Automatic annotation (TrEMBL), chains A, B, C:
Its main location: mitochondrion. Signal peptide: none annotated. Its EC number is 2.3.3.9, 3.1.2.30, 4.1.3.25. InterPro entries: Aldolase/citrate-lyase_domain, Citramalyl-CoA_lyase, Citrate_lyase_beta/mcl1/mcl2, Pyrv/PenolPyrv_kinase-like_dom, Pyrv_kinase-like_dom_sf. This is Citramalyl-CoA lyase, mitochondrial. One of its GO terms (cellular component) is mitochondrion. SUPFAM superfamilies: Phosphoenolpyruvate/pyruvate domain (SSF51621). Residues 41-271 form the HpcH/HpaI aldolase/citrate lyase domain. The gene is CLYBL.
């Protein structure tokens, strides 16, 4: 009897200006309106210092490749990693076609981040996406925005860098809404657009003293809270790593569970995990069909100058339209 | 060895003025002190536009009937729904005895809410309870209070309308404490008393991109957070719909789980679900006996002018007394 | 491929000054830097009014003994409990060696707390640790700090009292970060150091209307949230009681689950529960070995005047060093 407006009904008009908390006076505009959706179903780390692994990138099927300066690189190899990553970007020697080419810096508190940025961002070509790990407070983002502005001051940007942040501590989790709010505010003026949150479960477990299990019951609150915050701010949410990389059945189960919770992608630590993960985070055919029909109906109404419209019995609003477009973009990547 | 003051021991005196967050300077007085408890174990939606279903209401056993303007009514039928609901209230043609007669408006952001209110609230008899769906921010409640004040300015109210709000998005969930705080503040002056929170799981899942399962593990954080916030503000908490309406065993399991989590009722989408749900949310006999004896003891002490008192070894405070009264009211409804 | 810096990698330097929320302007310094770690794996309550049980204390193996004025003591016995506890502290008649000797006062809102404090804290020897139950707001801590300052004004303290607070209501849970922030601020000047949070599950269940089960699924959010907040503020987290004290297998399961979630200890209601609980919350041998080697390496580097250093391939920061020291202290207690 309850209306079956499930796939649709968020009302006619959705406020563009949304405040997440009444205690904040600043408003943020959701900057997702027109941006291109970059799929990051499988997020695979490649140590920037490892030539052999860098050379394998073209053969990898993950849709987000992370050239890593951080945890994947020993302290003694930090210089080498920066230099190799800069070189790869500068010469475009590696073929990233069909993939999100991204770089993970060291954290703000590591003391290594500025040097990472200076070197990597001096390459002729910038990575479309950068990752900032261990963001524990809004101040980290402000620091990062400041450095980025300085380093890119003389470079005209065609597109802002997409920013992926990591939440990896109890402190970070507790202030995640504040971090996101600040990130979206900074996205207005800084050379980045906050785009995704990664749940860094291993550092999080170390921080709270938890013991990881494959079932990850100990992380249920943290994971569901990360999804909730990410989606409240219209960001992608990237789920934890499945450590036991030989157990593909367990990986499949956890991937589908994460997708079912609302995550949009998952970190992987081995190329063998990519296919299972990408399948779990790809839209099923009936959703693709729905999305295609909806977008077509929208464009038809647009041409006729109409506003709100009904589709298959449901009122269509902007979030639904964006959702449909994202599904189509994901589908295009998946099936190509 | 730990004191077995379980059913009792919240101390002698409970502050009436409670602040939920130190960052708020405003205090709210819990307005639950004297109000009558309206049981809403099974909350059943009836589309306002559907004559056949409206006529069946007297035969329904749910203790809260929702005359729906929102998701259960197609856009082309909104006018018809308003008009039929107004007529039903105006003429009192439908027998609601023993039930909470309530109306669900469209959401503030739908652009339809004001017209719903104007029409429905022009009936000679007002519904005791109104539902406001998709409350995403405290501002929605302020808007609603404002409209309600205007529409009811010339009507003397015997009782304020009870207000049931819906949390159905990530944004709403994140600011639910702010929404409730504002709702209770507004309850002082506006023609409503905030009374309950409904967890709108289907829109919530659509908003965060989650996939509903019967076990609802993907909603564990959201459900338990809704209960926690509701109870912190002394509000009823109404649990999610069990979609698979033919599976009564699954419904029973989920109803008992929800009651065990602290929910006070559950949404139902089919009359066949009512009996199972009401049983799960009814107090067991030993609790009824406890409550009856406690209330009797309290009244005895009141007559003698005594304050705090001990009952079956435990100190009795106001929250416990209210809990006991609620149990008796629920029991009275259940067993009549 | 992802760096295996799991047990180590929180970066080079960890800010000492951390702000948990950008909306707070005050900064708190983590006061954990130099304090001695007091293990509280099993937290056992002994009613202060019960001579027989008080006499048994030397035979108990729990590493935290709570002389209780609160839930374990009937209202008519409050005076007796205070007086007996004061006497025990004053004469040091009970051997507490190897145990944390602590006292639980009644809650601030009970109206009994001040008298508890006055009597107990007039003993010649103060308990190293005091427990404050039912802390529902930061104001409770401010009240407590104020009374403590007054009562101890003329006594020079060798060590501040360690303060263990209880979160036992929905309201308390919702403002737990505010409570902790205030507690750490007060710890700078007041005669206490906030040291641990206990999750009081039975009162919490009564408050939210939940029904306790042995599996405690209904408390999953609350437990994981308590751990997250505690660890964000570098506090110990003490898990719920396992009520069914004859079921040692269930106790073991729940203890290991709690330890796996990040709790550092657990409340027990029967001496027979102590061994199982202490085993579950003791560090396994490989962690002890790791910690010993890390601390040795740190001291070696300190002597040579070096700062940040690498250990087994990972960068070592202060939190890790503290974690290692805690493990060693726990291990020392366990194996003695």
């Amino acid at each position: 009897m309850l209306g079956m407006l499930r796939q649709g009904g968020r009302g006619l008009v959705k406020c563009v200006v949304r405040r997440v908390s009444a205690s904040t006076s600043s408003k943020h505009q959701s900057p997702v309106g027109e941006r291109r959706y970059i799929p990051r179903r499988a997020v695979l780390y490649v140590p920037g210092s490892d030539d052999r692994k860098l050379l394998k990138i073209p053969s990898l099927a993950a849709d987000c490749i992370v050239l890593d300066c951080e945890d994947g690189v020993a302290l003694s190899m930090k210089d080498a990693a920066r230099s190799k990553i800069r070189h790869a970007l500068h010469t475009q020697a590696i073929d990233f076609s069909g993939k999100d080419c991204s770089v993970r810096f060291n954290s703000v508190e590591s003391g290594l981040c500025e040097e990472d940025m200076r070197e990597v961002l001096s390459a002729r070509h910038l990575p479309p996406t950068v990752h900032l790990p261990k963001v524990d407070s809004p101040e980290h983002l402000a620091w990062f925005a400041d450095k980025l502005r300085t380093l890119l001051a003389t470079r005209p940007l065609q597109d802002k860098l997409r920013l992926v942040i990591f939440t990896e501590s109890a402190e970070s989790l507790l202030c995640l809404p504040d971090i996101c709010r600040r990130g979206l505010e900074l996205s207005k003026d800084a050379p980045f657009l906050l785009d995704a949150i990664v749940f860094g479960s291993d550092d999080f477990c170390a921080d709270i003293g938890a013991t990881r299990t494959n079932e990850a019951k100990e992380l249920l609150f943290a994971r569901q809270y990360v999804v909730t915050v990410a989606k409240a701010f219209k960001l992608q949410a990237i789920d934890l790593v499945y450590i036991d990389y030989k157990d593909l059945e367990g990986l499949r189960r956890q991937s589908e569970e994460g997708a079912g919770m609302g995550f949009t992608g998952k970190q992987v630590i081995h190329p063998g995990q990519v296919a299972v993960v990408q399948a779990a985070f790809s839209p099923p055919p009936h959703k693709v069909e729905w999305a295609a029909a909806l977008v077509e109906a929208f464009e038809h109404h647009q041409k006729e100058g109409k506003g709100a419209f009904s589709f298959r019995g449901n009122m269509i609003d902007m979030p639904l339209l964006l959702q449909a477009r994202n599904i189509l973009q994901l589908a295009a990547v998946t099936t190509k």
